[in-house]
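Could someone model BV8 with this protein?
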Amino acid sequence: MLQDARGVAVLTGSGISAESGVPTFRDAQTGLWSRYEPQELATPEAFARDPRLVWEWYAWRRELAKQAAPNPGHKALAALEARVPGVVLITQNVDGLHQRAGSQNVTELHGNIMRSKCSVEDIVAESREGDTGVPPSCPNCGAFLRPDVVWFGEALPVRAFEVALEAARGCDLFLSVGTSGLVQPAASLALDALRNGAVIAEVNPNETPLSRYAEYLLQGRAGEVLPALMEAAFERDPGGHGG
Ligand code: BV8
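Reply:
Sure, complex below.
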């Protein structure tokens, strides 16, 4: 299917970054953060109530992401994009590891933790040199900066979701990798693909609410399964002419 696919939509979640050492959203947040529910901190209300705490949580996660390296799962998807013209990579992750693995065209549904934006003007902004504020201030208007990610209760970037919806509706193969499929509206993309006749394949060590709709359940870790998938689809048949 991979060799002959006209369009492949890939949706990734935090599971693909687990082998890079980035904790998944539902893993207990290690150390300092174990007493907070991510869903409690990743909200505008939490930031309004305690901007310092929320900013420090993201600063900690940003450091983890910076120290992390793309794993063979990320790299296999970059290879897939180079190999199959109609691949569209959509990610719920904010860690930027797909880009660092070499994926050229990444649609980030939930923003990117490496970017900050003004919490009032809603434009991307970085703190001034020497601004030791926690959170730092917008150089333009002085309001708090915040991470440029989508919090619970916030709308997804319109363009990104449009691209994702178009990919889901136009693909013949929808590959769901490392996502528990619990967060909307990202989780609805797989069903959009199904309604439009696509085949669903899922890469996840565990079952998810999506598993029952998947024609192929590749139950394992993305860092192992995706390279094996690429090997099976392309290396053994270097011509890639089906068979
Ligand atoms: C919106 C950025 C409205 C921030 C994130 C009740 C019912 C249904 C929906 C709702 C509801 N109440 C509220 C909602 C809506 C809400 C939602 O879906 N809530 C859920 C929890 C029920 N959604 C929203 O609020 C969205 N916005 O609806 O706005 C609106 C509309 C118009 C105008 C105004 C408002 C916004 C959602 C985005 C939230 N932001 N991230 C940050 O990162 O801090 S979501 C965040 O959680 C991640 O980005 C990710 O999307 C999600 C976590 O999901 P996963 O990635 O799947 O990770 P998880 O840990 O769950 O699972 C990991 C999986 O990997 C597991 O299955 C595991 O088995 C697997 N795995 C582990 N290791 C490996 C592996 N797989 C492969 N290899 C491995 N090695």
